[in-house]
Design goal:
By secondary structure, this protein is mainly alpha-helical. It has one domain. Helix content is 45%, strand content 9%. The chain has a two-stranded antiparallel ribbon with strand order 1-2. The radius of gyration is 15 Å and the shape is elongated.
Protein backbone atom coordinates (compact mmCIF):
# COMPACT_ATOMS: atom_id res chain seq x y z
CA UNK A 1 0.00 0.00 0.00
CA UNK A 2 1.52 3.28 -1.16
CA UNK A 3 0.41 6.87 -1.29
CA UNK A 4 -0.40 8.04 -4.83
CA UNK A 5 3.03 9.56 -5.45
CA UNK A 6 4.90 6.39 -4.49
CA UNK A 7 2.47 4.21 -6.44
CA UNK A 8 2.98 6.34 -9.55
CA UNK A 9 6.76 6.29 -9.06
CA UNK A 10 7.03 2.50 -8.83
CA UNK A 11 4.53 1.94 -11.65
CA UNK A 12 6.57 4.27 -13.90
CA UNK A 13 9.97 2.85 -12.88
CA UNK A 14 8.99 -0.82 -13.22
CA UNK A 15 5.76 -1.01 -15.25
CA UNK A 16 6.07 -4.76 -15.82
CA UNK A 17 6.37 -5.37 -12.08
CA UNK A 18 4.00 -2.81 -10.50
CA UNK A 19 0.45 -1.79 -11.37
CA UNK A 20 -2.35 -0.12 -9.42
CA UNK A 21 -5.14 -2.36 -8.16
CA UNK A 22 -8.33 -1.60 -10.07
CA UNK A 23 -11.14 0.30 -8.38
CA UNK A 24 -11.29 2.07 -5.05
CA UNK A 25 -8.44 0.17 -3.45
CA UNK A 26 -6.12 1.28 -6.25
CA UNK A 27 -7.19 4.90 -5.85
CA UNK A 28 -6.20 4.61 -2.18
CA UNK A 29 -2.73 3.31 -3.07
CA UNK A 30 -3.12 -0.47 -3.28
CA UNK A 31 -0.56 -1.74 -5.79
CA UNK A 32 0.06 -5.14 -7.37
CA UNK A 33 3.59 -6.49 -7.66
CA UNK A 34 4.50 -9.30 -10.07
CA UNK A 35 7.24 -11.12 -8.16
CA UNK A 36 8.44 -12.84 -11.35
CA UNK A 37 9.11 -9.47 -12.98
CA UNK A 38 10.60 -7.38 -10.19
CA UNK A 39 14.28 -7.40 -9.28
CA UNK A 40 15.30 -7.76 -5.64
CA UNK A 41 16.61 -4.19 -5.06
CA UNK A 42 13.41 -2.67 -6.45
CA UNK A 43 11.23 -5.01 -4.40
CA UNK A 44 13.16 -4.26 -1.21
CA UNK A 45 12.90 -0.52 -1.88
CA UNK A 46 9.14 -0.78 -2.42
CA UNK A 47 8.63 -2.88 0.70
CA UNK A 48 10.61 -0.44 2.84
CA UNK A 49 8.66 2.52 1.45
CA UNK A 50 5.31 0.82 2.10
CA UNK A 51 6.39 -0.19 5.60
CA UNK A 52 7.40 3.37 6.47
CA UNK A 53 3.96 4.60 5.39
CA UNK A 54 2.21 1.91 7.45
CA UNK A 55 4.35 2.26 10.59
CA UNK A 56 2.57 3.87 13.52
CA UNK A 57 3.51 7.48 14.07
CA UNK A 58 4.97 8.29 17.49
CA UNK A 59 2.50 9.99 19.80
CA UNK A 60 3.42 13.51 20.78
CA UNK A 61 3.59 14.12 24.49
CA UNK A 62 1.61 17.03 25.80
CA UNK A 63 3.44 19.18 28.29
CA UNK A 64 1.38 20.13 31.30
CA UNK A 65 1.76 23.66 32.54
Amino acid sequence: MFNQDLRDFYCEQAPLAFSPVLGGWGRMGATRCDLKSVDEPTLMSALKAAHQLAAPKPKSRKVRA
